[in-house]
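Lab notebook, bench 4. We co-purified these components, and the gel suggests they stay together. Before we commit to crystallization screens, I want a quick structural picture of the whole thing.
Request: model the full complex, all chains together.
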Amino acid sequence: MSREGAALPDPPAKGRKALGSRHLRSVPLERAYQLIEPGPVVLLATSQRGIPNVMAMSWHMMVEFTPPQIACIVSNRNHSFAALKRTKECVIAIPPAEFAKTVVAIGNCSGADTDKFARFGLATRAARHVAPPLLLDCFANLECRVVDTRMVSAYCMFVLEVVHAWIDPQRRDARTIHHQGWGRFAVDGQHIRLRSGKA
Amino acid sequence: MSREGAALPDPPAKGRKALGSRHLRSVPLERAYQLIEPGPVVLLATSQRGIPNVMAMSWHMMVEFTPPQIACIVSNRNHSFAALKRTKECVIAIPPAEFAKTVVAIGNCSGADTDKFARFGLATRAARHVAPPLLLDCFANLECRVVDTRMVSAYCMFVLEVVHAWIDPQRRDARTIHHQGWGRFAVDGQHIRLRSGKA
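Here is the predicted assembly.
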């Protein structure tokens, strides 16, 4: 979702307004893996010199439970790459399926020439520990710091540590989307429970 | 899914037998990412001194399209760790949702004291390029070689290169499972298509 493409329509302004009043709840850090391990498409927010940006991302995985650490690939062709490398801060936000059109539209344009927050009317709130904003259209937000850049030159791979986790308690059971390539996404369907260990 | 737990019943032997006749089709390597990027629970097969083993895994991501490269975390508490580190070969197999119970059961016991292939009656076929077997209960199999071990000591992270990809054409639209922690899985539901770039 990194190439240029036609913009998709924003959700109605009415819906946006309501987001401003959302209450976010802190989640214990040791539960952060439950948001990343299922492999949803996420949004990655960065901020450089006071200018925020956001991209869509599907190449990420957990690397440690406690403290929660996430590895992700941010291509150096993405405008977000330089901001992430320099500021070492980001927010990973997890969008619900209803937000899929906007997620794809965010992935189809570049922060190099587009203020995506204005273009898509994204609702935000200041994060607690990092400069990039929380995304209120998403049901979960993870404030992250880059803790390892050793694999950036080889793979554009950053290792992040989650320093604060937020969920919107009204949408804690939101369904996520999983990218199967070329704009095809699987949406979470049925949930099943099977006796297993932690990971 | 790495702790001890009760075994779950195998699928009926009848179903197993039928798997032996399955025809697998090679998939162009540049399409391998479409199987991993959505973040399904996968099985990782290894083989050391002629003894195969298999574990369940959810911590993996794509790192490159071409050649297809995958990063994954295999804890050094897993019996598979030593085999992967020493032999530098594995098969990543992607199970359909119907196989979830067995996937969890595979994750709940250890190859240190269990022949999981016998215990769960797993149907296998020899891979083309690597020693670990293909798993015929899965709808896709990726033969992989470890190409980077620099992050093994820090994160138990291996970078794999896919050297051959197989799908079962009769089950190419199989639904996968995504682990949300503590034995809760989301099964793929609806599929949506939205105009986007490649990744």
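The first strand of chain B starts at residue 25 and ends at 27. Worth comparing against the SEC data before the next meeting. Residues 98 and 175 of chain B are 8 Å apart (CA to CA).
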